[in-house]
Write a structure and sequence with these properties.
heterodimer; A: about 700 residues; alpha+beta; five-stranded antiparallel sheet; four-stranded antiparallel sheet; about 60% helix; elongated; B: about 150 residues; Beta-Lactamase; two-stranded antiparallel ribbon; 5 helices; about 45% helix; AP complex subunit sigma (chain B)
Amino acid sequence: MSPSVCLQEMIRVIRGARTQGEERGVIQRECAAIRAQFRQADSGGRSHNLAKLLYVHMLGYPAHFGQMECVRLIASSKYSEKRIGYLGAMMLLDEKQDASLLITNSIKNDLSHSSQHVQSLALCTLACMGSAEMCRDLAPEIERLLKASNSYIKKKAALCAVHIVRKIPELGEMFTPSAHSLLSEKNHGVLHGAVILITELCERNPDNLKQFRKSVPELVQIMKNLVTSGYSPEHNVAGISDPFLQVRILRLLRILGRNNDAASDAMNDLLAQVATNTDSSKTAGSAVLYETVLTIMDIRSESGLRVLAVNILGRFLLNNDRNIRYISMTSLQKIVQTDHTAVQRHRGTIVDCLKDQDASVKRRALELSLALVSAANIRSMMKELLLFLSTCPPELRSHAASGIFNAAERYAPSQRWHIDTILHVLVTAGGDVRDETVPNLIQLITAASELHCYTVHKLYRALISDIVQQSLVQVACWCIGEYGDLLLKGECEEITPMQVTEDDVLDALETVLQSHMSTPTSRGFALTAIMKLSTRITNNVDRIRSVVSIYGSCIDVELQQRAVEYNALFKKYDHMRYFTMSYCTVILEFGCRSRLSLVLGGRGLKAEHVSIIFDCKDNVYLYWFLLQSVQLQMKAPSGDLIPAQGCGTVTQTVLLSYTNKANLKMRVRLSYSSQGTACQDMVQIDSFPSPAWS
Amino acid sequence: MTCTKIRFILIQNRAGKTRLAKWYMQFDDDEKQKLIEEVHAVVTVRDAKHTNFVEFRNFKIIYRRYAGLYFCICVDVTDNNLAYLEGIHNFVEVLNEYFHNVCELDLVFNFYKVYTVVDEMFLAGEIRETSQTKVLKQLLMLQSLE
């Protein structure tokens, strides 16, 4: 067996290993030697061996065979051995190991040791890894030490008590009286420990809360002394007197003042004083100010004080230190609903933070910006938000896009602005928007009847420049299908129109059909649009007919089904095609989230033809379909199962005979079964778009 | 699980070697290893453009880089970030004073002394002693007992 080397030498050898394998070899050798040494139980060099083992453990290697050695060393009378033994206990033993119970007795003895350093080791270890049983056994010892005369011991005992209370909350009662008396200590360390102990007691037990509320004046006085006292070198950090203690006291005051008017009153002046006088040029001061702000916002403070707090947060937003901007926004987010006007004042700075380089700062800025959008600032805010959308990190895009849509919906100053905004989002981030965006936009466009010309021109331009964004492609195809004639006319008030021929339009739509970038849904839209155009154009009907028949044998089933139906319209129902494919898709919402698109026709004939296309989100079995107040002739539906997620449609054509078209209303009742339950839904159409009728 | 304010303190170098790991919450050995790796992964990709705070599982990590070492403290989401940032700096200044211009090798060869410093300044998951003078005085006294 090789002689074991001293700690420093072993560390050097391990560091000298050039590969992981070499290191492992060295460590295995050393561990074998250490194990042998442990078994020998000779007293020389024991602490060195355990220290070596602990180093090896820190590198990530197993060291559990050293546990009993820790127990042995803790029981030794030599300080150097005890010290390593306790360190080993903290590193290798935890509650789950049985060996940890064995050291309870040693700890108990050491807690009453004559040397404060030994006492301190014991306290430290108990506070670090003391299990519930150990804590219960030793709690009376700790309570005794809290009353000791030595402040070094008192401060450790206070935190040890905190650990005990966390493990066994009922034991808190034991420490309450001592905790109270510790508040009159002058020693900062003891005060610090006392404040933490009281905080813990109050958080665990509301009775303690009531009792310690009486200490608010005392705490206020301690804070005042800290804030106004002269330079105290020992606890000074960047000109602030013991910022750590100040922060803890402020936190305790927060807990005591919450939901309690009397306590909140008692601390009002102090908070104002700290808020105004603390120098925030360095982090230490900012830490204290920040805790003050948190306390002000959480207790029952006067409105003047709240405004002061929000202003501090606003000042933080202008700070060069990114950390401070970040925490400021975290807090502003929590209060933006309750103190909306105060936060609005800082909108400009918040918007600037959208350009920060840290993604977490950007995210906070985005949430705040969205919360601050209002009717008054919608135009300027939207400019910033759209700019942000084009440069923001990918993980934020979907959130930004939906936030923008919500804001646009609530505060849009005009329909044209609204449509423009949605289009802008689709161009920038069309891949990150939700599914409902497409039908929602279609609905919006339909409703904005004066803007049809403008919209179709804009969408056509977008389509010919880029067909990557599928949501944009789908809306554009639909729009061109609906209003293609406006496009071809070449006049538009709102926008300089392009001169577009029928071939151009069909080219654009066919590009979508053929591109490998287009999803099946987009292709469906394109095909339907091409079909609709067959009634709006005059020269290229044959081209359309051939496109449709090609897709009659397409691999994509959905596309094939549509093509076949459209083909049928060309062949068998050509006299109806004109009417079926004419103006206006009316989109109605049913409760079951299905969408009923009525494609209405009716030019110059007595009979009005209605074709119903269902696009549903759930699987729906279609039983029957009923119209009231007209004579109807129903054709068979093209299918009776609508697949989920908008992946398919069912078409049912209904012929209406109707004389008094001015008063036509339609009530549609839908009976279906969805996921096994029978459902019914009804919707009424009170008016039909006028271009549909001649 | 008991709830402490500080969950753990880690000192790691850029390569991911642990120079100190102090745990204030119960974890299994393999959980500890996993945490060490995760913290390393999260913290080493950040640079001066980022804040010193990272959201980590359902806690947060306050960290600061000194030369090749990352000092990380894992705390509750409700804790005061800036106070713990100052806490780290306080701790590093004590190390610097104690080891006379500390470097990574000092922490390696004297690892058990580093634990002593930690235990003087932090206890039971809380900041315990913040006066650098007091801590240094205590450390020197302990050294004389060796």
